[in-house]
Amino acid sequence: MMQSMIIFPITIFAVVPSISAFLLDKNPPLRLPSASAGNRTNTSIIAFLPSNDSTSTPISEDVSYYCNRVLGDTLTIPSCHDTIRLIGVNRTDLSFGLRDTPGADFDVPLPQRVISSDGTCVVEPSLAAGEEEARASWEDVAVAGFVLVKHCVGEGEGSGGVAKGIGGDNNLQVYVSEYDPSNVRCYGRMRRPNVQASCQQIIDRMEADETNVVFGPQSDPLARVRLPYLLLSDDRACKITIRTTGTGDGHTDVWTWSKMWEVAVALLGMCVREGKEGVETLLGDYGYLYMEVGGPQSESESESEGEEEN
Prior knowledge:
By secondary structure, this protein is of the alpha+beta class. 17% of the residues lie in helices and 32% in strands.
């Protein structure tokens, strides 16, 4: 994910006097990953965001950012504006931190990301290098994302970017990057209504490690994750299943849990958000794996469908 990515700053901007008004709603964000450091350029902006009483309120921010085509070079303004809209406007000061931190209880457990409805544009808050916690609001993330969309996606002709020094303690970074949804297919309807929170619970509990893992059929002794592998929400309203293709028991493949987690976020954002089931195919280093999201066929379904070796 982001921590392993080499960043080369390619565009630096000076002072931006103002940003035109934009509207956001209060839909809950999706979750996702960590970021890396980069060069700082302070950019003073004033963003006009709607407050709780629906009046436009100017908010002064000091945003340091750079654009980088490693993070994307085909991003579009409409898709990224959709992502920012989904973040919502909330000025509550929150704690951000890695969810596997021992003894920690953060308001926003990382990794986390918000993805557009078409699955192409991602906005992702992340801790700055060396930090263990950040204090910020979702409005801070939205403003930082809007600056990146305006200057990197817009003026940078589709480029991704990174905003640094976000939040009250300057410990948060915000990434705008692209995702390739070409192998995602949404279909049918979820078997139960309003299951986005149930599917989100699965995503929040998924591993997001960047270590390569062997995924394979039950018959392969080398497989660490035995397929099919089922992840089920506590209320049993949502399930995510990882499967393999091929003749017989199927093929073995290698991938990371962090990439699996990104796929789950895309399926939730593109399919479940619209009340549909979905699948993404051609996963893994060799393209043998695929992931499905849907509702359990019956109350008797259990998590015994697959297992992970320690």
